[in-house]
Amino acid sequence: MNVEAMSLQDFRGKLEQLSEGIPGQDMSDEERVRRAKRAFMQKLNGHRAVDLDSCLQCGMCAEACHFYEATQNERYAPVYKYRPLRRFYRREMSPMRWFYRPFTRDITAADLKEWQHLVYDACTGCGRCDMICPMGIKISAAIRVVRHGLAAAGYVPPEMRVLRNEQRDQNTLFGVGAEQLKALVEKLGAQGISVPLDREQADVMLLTTAVEVLLFPDAFAATARILNKSGADWTIRSDVFEAANVGIITGDDPTMSLAIRRIVDKAKACGVKTVLMPESGHAYQTLRWEGATEMGGALPFETLSIPEFISGEVQAGRLNLKAQSNGASVTYHDPCRLSRKGGVMQQPRDVLAALGLDVRETPSNQRENYCCGGGCGEYVLSGAADLRQKAFEIKRREFEETGADAVVTGCANCRINLLIGAENSGWETPVTSLVETVAANLAD
Amino acid sequence: MRKDQNLGEYLRAQGVSRRGFLKFCSATASLMALPPSAIAQVADALAKARRPSVIWLSFQECTGCTESLTRSHAPTVESLIFDAISLDYHHTLQAAAGHGAEAARMAAMEENSGEYILVVDGSIPVGNPAYSTIAGISNLDMLKETAANAFALVAVGTCAAFGGIPHANPNPTGAVSVSDIVTDKPIINVSGCPPIPVVITGVLAHFLTFGTIPELDALGRPAAFFGQNIHDRCYRRPFYERGQFAETFDDEGARKGWCLYKLGCKGPTTYNTCATLKWNEGTSFPIQSGHGCIGCSEPDFWDKGGFYNPISAGMWGSRDALLGAAAAGAALGVGSALAARARKKKAQAAEEA
Amino acid sequence: MTLLDFASGPGMQWALWIFVFGVLWRLVGALFLLSRKDLTKPRQYNSVAAGLGAIISRSAPAHAFEKRILFQHVTGYVWHFALFISVLFFAPHILFFESVLGFGWPHLPNTIILITAIIATAVLITLLIRRATHPVQRFISNADDYISIFVVLIPLITGILAFAHVGGRYETLLAIHLLSVEVMLIWFPFGKLMHAIMTMPARYQAGTAFGRRGVKA
Question: What fold is seen in the domain C3-31+43-211?
Answer without folding.
Answer: Fumarate Reductase Cytochrome B subunit (1.20.950)
